[in-house]
Design brief:
Shape: elongated
Strand order of the largest sheet: 4-9-7-6-10-11
Helix content: 10-25%
Number of helices: 9
Structural class: alpha+beta
Order of helices and strands: HHHEEEEEEEEEEHEEHEEEEHHEEEHHEE
Number of strands: 21
Strand content: 25-35%
Amino acid sequence: MPRRVEDIRPGERRSIRDIPVEPEKKPLKKAEEPSPALRKKAEEPSSESRMKDDVRKFKEAQDKREGSLMKPIHIQKMPTGALPIHKAPSKGRVSKRTKGIALIAIGVCLLIGVIGYFASANFSRAAFTLYPKIIPITVNSPIMVFGAPQNGQLSYELFSESTIASTSVPATDAPGVQSKASGSIIIYNTYSAQPWRLIAGTRLVNDIGNTYRLTSSVTIPGYKKPAGGALTPGKIAVSIIADQSGSQYNISRLDAGNTFTIPAYASSTKFAAIYGKSTGNITGGLSGSKKSISPAALASTTEALRSVAVSSLTARLKGKISAEYVVYDSAYVSKASVPTISGDKPKSAIVSTEVTVYAIALKKVDLILKLAGAQSLQIFSGSTFDPVGLTSLSFSITNIKDFMPEKKSNILVQMKGDLKLVGVIPVEEMKGEFAGISLSDTQKVMLKHSAVIDLEKSSGQVVPPWAKIPKDKSKIDITVQK
């Protein structure tokens, strides 16, 4: 039995079958034929006719399928009006939307660039490698060093420390002897501008009560006092001897008892104005048995005392001399007095000696000027430099046997070695000058300190390269290459 095929129509919807088909146009007569231009235009199908033609073809194809498959097909009703035609954008032209997206992208890139610039500048760092200016000097020459300052000449300062070293040694008693202590002192006159005379035998008493006498008559020069100046007392060295025998009259200039007054002047102003000071030891006083020690034992004991005392006094001197001076190890000179023997024990004696250590100190500024010369120092233009190797130079006194520290005699020294004058770069000061400026402007700062900086070797860099040097000095690294 043949299947019945019906058109299925949805409610209130039109089927494709309801679209009317235009009747075929009859050909125009010759007289009615249009011009070629109108014919061409007429032959071109309109959008509506193309739409209808497509619908017709679709309908025919649908009918064929319905006949073969015998299945109902729902077809949506198509509008009868002409479909809108969108023009494709022509080549070379960009839509407004595309332009907007491009502008936004460019703005974002610029914003990221600006943020990156300022962020990198904020986290920037600067590093400089600076080389100091160096002047090498070879030292190998004898130099005369004067005890008293001389114009244009090198002179020295003398520092000293003294002590009395003593120890007990085995000894025997010799036959009894009686002797008086003797020595020399200086008597000062602050009483009169005229010379003042003292006769032989004038009594002098020290501040521990021992009495001594002048061995000869002396005349003390009067004091000097220039207008508006300080008073300079007159003075003279005199010899004295103890009034009695005994070892108690033996004194050292370092001991108490080295100030002397004249008892005859006790009731006048001359008592405090004419006085004496010991300049050395007063020795030789003895009463009773004399101690006997072998010469070899006395010599070895004295040398041991001197050695210990020199070590102690040298350390004491090193602690008191300021950094403006240099004192070489061989510039410490020691002197020891003749040893004295005393004591009241039957089988032992006390050996004592006064030891003094002198430090010959040279001012560093004066010594460098002598070794390097004024022309070399002018290179630094008054800036600070470090004399590398100055304290390591070889130093020896060639006339040490003739050296008399009490008179500050001149000395001849031989110095050898290598010395370098190295410019001191003010690192912290330069960090402050570098802060916040561009890398190109650092050249001005370098030139300012060119007296101590080797400009040809020194360099600097900033990371990132377009940033300025940070204002924070902790982000500026300066390395001084020596």
